[in-house]
Amino acid sequence: MTGGSILGPLAAFVAILVLIPVALWLLKRTPIGAAASQGPMRLVAALPLGPNQRLLTVEVGAGEERRWLVLGVTPGGINTLHTMGPQADLPAASTAALPFAQFLNRARGAAPIAPKGDDGAH
Question: Domain spans of the chain?
Answer without folding.
Answer: 3-36, 40-108
